[in-house]
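Archive transcription. Copying these from loose printouts into the bound notebook so they stop getting lost. Printout 1 of 2:
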Amino acid sequence: MNNKNNFIGERVTTLRLAKGISEYSLSKNIGKCNNYINKVSSGTITPTIPTLSLICDFFGITLSQFFQDESTYVSPVAAQIASRLPALNEEQLQSLLVIIQSMEVSGKPEDKPSGRPDKSTKKRRKN
């Protein structure tokens, strides 16, 4: 097995496991024989470009993304968002930026509410 086969096989396995799909199921979804993905994953065979394109389509990524370095990998959802950005006007882009920034702030564990009211902000009873 050479490095090219090893990379392709490992990448297919990584994508498949992340999606929670079996080798058999992926093989059938791309119209190949039952053990096709097993052979790709083990490096026994190398998929053709059209077949690799089918695999990428299944995972919602491009061939370029398939071969990207993991450190520069963009998730399929992020790629979908990025592909729609040119259609937005400046005001919409600013609104989206505000939303993303608020998610970044609220995404920090120390900033997440515990679900319990803060004792310092108890409501006073009206008499």
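Printout 2 of 2:
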Amino acid sequence: MKKNHVLFIGLAFIIILGILTIYSINTVIPDNPLEGTEQIVLVVSKTETSSNAMLYTFSRDSDKWRFHFSCPVVIGKNGMAWGIGLHNDKVRMDDEPVKMEGDSKSPKGAFELLQAFGYLPPTMVRIKFPYTQVTSDMICIDDVRSEYYNMVVKTAEKGLDTEVLPSHEDMLRNDNQYKYTVFVGHNAISPVKDEGSCIFLHVWKDPGSYTAGCTAMSEENILKLLGWLDPDKYPCLVQLSRKSYHRLKEEWGLPEVKI
């Protein structure tokens, strides 16, 4: 009886140890941030500090990516830095920068696409993606001292004094750069102060311009993108430098692009 009891305990210990080992291995490997998405907007720059890049769109069917269209884009004046999104923080290399407020860098990583905004009424913008017409009192707050940091709000609804507004971006501008925008889910859930805000896909000033951290393209191409996005396919934005793309391509199951 005593031998059998010892043998049973020994076998149980081995089984438990094996389970713990498997669990440990599984938790060390970061989750694929693209799991569940059927549409990907992939933006790849040549270097970490490039202010221009290429945008590629793919849809997934039976675990295979199908290419739709591509176009040139401009990004942050100082390139990219790792943002807060769907990806695990462990994918960042020690020598790679983190996105901060005012750094003029576009967020790097994988992000949800949350909401479209624009100047025109919804009846004139026939898309599947959630769309809101902006008004003159609609702002995106980039002030780290504000409780509405990294949120698009209406000043009247939040009781904000228009004479002493926090630092912000007007959603209704006097140019066409925000005529069509898509709000990117960088630092969107419980926003971390000073780690970046108000990131959009929007219309560029011109092909030779750069942004303060957004990703911009021609009006023709953003309209094409808006018409393609399908909320039922859980579209995600992935922004990487060429070096990071090659490093994470297999791990994230990214589609093949020639850079």
